[in-house]
């Protein structure tokens, strides 16, 4: 076989490989006119190589960040060295639809990008090659793992039944508010409240109905709080609220609104409609408590006084 024929055959194999490889290959001149556009790019863009040849890339792909890519290409050409970007730095260069069934939850193809200089016979960089790698599977898996970890972190901080902060997380906020008061001496109040005669609810209607009452308490309370307030489920049918920058009278007004809303609500359970009330204790933070636990004890004493005084009432710690 003649040398010319061997070279032609080798060239044919090379072209065939570049067309079939599962990597996007784009060759640009230094004016960003497209010189080569392989089958991967044709398939995902819907634009043929003949149609895009000698066209400026940004004209057909206005979504490409022109200033960013220009800086990258200029640096590659000047230093005659490769540059890399990952999907974590920039999700994609070409906004191709995701066509993989396994990662169908992602709308667009995530891409890694390699920018390589192509030198001419003089050794000067004359063209640039963009290699586009479809990493949607990897990106989708990592994003799913991150979402799962975020969900686990959230679950570790919240009460499963109500979605409120759990006791440990809420107590940390009480501690933080206590320390903030010691530093800035701004009025702040703590609320402890629980559902009156909750045992009777469980005994008469069952624990599932009791759970519905607890969820209703959480939802009704949240609708009557400000964004800055923090509510948590302290345990069983008992709840706690931190009211920043709120004195005892301001806390009493908020708590009366909560108490009245609950008193007038009806929980529609599968067993029967249930009416219920709550008792509330408030403690405005002062100089006497030496720890957040002592502050909690003050609010708990006020709650006990509300129960002893007949329930369905709000009592402020004196």
UniProtKB/TrEMBL annotation:
User: Keywords of this protein's UniProt record, alphabetized?
Assistant: Kinase, Transferase
Query: What's its top-level EC category?
Result: transferase
An example Gene Ontology CC term for this record: plasma membrane
GO MF terms held by the record: diguanylate cyclase activity; kinase activity
Question: Which reactions does this protein catalyse?
Answer: 2 GTP = 3',3'-c-di-GMP + 2 diphosphate
PROSITE patterns given in the database record: GGDEF
* GO biological process terms held by the UniProt record: cell adhesion involved in single-species biofilm formation; negative regulation of bacterial-type flagellum-dependent cell motility
Q: What is its EC number?
A: 2.7.7.65
User: Required cofactors, per record?
Assistant: Mg(2+)
Any one Pfam family here would be PAS_4
- Domain (GGDEF) ranges: 186-318
Spell out the Gene3D superfamilies in the cross-references.
3.30.70.270, PAS domain
Query: By what name is this protein known?
Result: diguanylate cyclase
């Amino acid at each position: 076989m003649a040398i010319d024929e061997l070279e032609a055959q080798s060239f044919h194999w090379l072209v065939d490989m570049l067309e079939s490889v599962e990597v996007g290959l784009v060759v640009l001149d230094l004016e960003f006119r497209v010189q080569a556009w392989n089958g991967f790019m044709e398939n995902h863009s819907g634009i043929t190589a003949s149609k895009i040849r000698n066209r400026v890339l940004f004209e057909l792909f206005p979504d490409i960040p022109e200033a960013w890519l220009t800086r990258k290409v200029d640096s590659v050409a000047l230093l005659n060295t490769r540059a890399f970007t990952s999907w974590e730095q920039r999700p994609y260069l070409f906004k191709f639809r995701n066509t993989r069934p396994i990662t169908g939850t992602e709308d667009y193809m995530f891409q890694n990008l390699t920018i390589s200089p192509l030198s001419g016979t003089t050794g000067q960089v004359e063209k640039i090659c963009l290699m586009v790698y479809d990493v949607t599977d990897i990106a989708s898996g990592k994003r799913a793992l991150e979402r799962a970890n975020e969900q686990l972190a959230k679950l570790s901080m919240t009460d499963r039944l109500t979605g409120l902060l759990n006791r440990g997380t809420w107590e940390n906020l009480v501690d933080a508010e206590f320390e903030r008061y010691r530093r800035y001496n701004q009025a702040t109040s703590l609320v402890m409240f629980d559902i009156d005669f909750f045992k009777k609810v469980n005994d008469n209607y069952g624990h599932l109905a009791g759970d519905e009452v607890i969820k209703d308490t959480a939802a009704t309370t949240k609708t009557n709080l400000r964004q800055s307030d923090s509510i948590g489920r302290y345990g069983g049918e008992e709840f706690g609220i931190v009211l920043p920058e709120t004195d005892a009278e301001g806390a009493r007004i908020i708590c009366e609104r909560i108490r009245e809303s609950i008193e007038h609500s009806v929980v529609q359970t599968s067993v029967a409609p249930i009416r219920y009330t709550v008792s509330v204790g408030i403690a405005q933070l002062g100089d006497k408590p030496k720890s957040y636990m002592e502050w909690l004890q003050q609010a708990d004493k006020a709650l006990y006084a509300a129960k002893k005084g007949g329930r369905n009432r709000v009592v402020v710690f004196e």
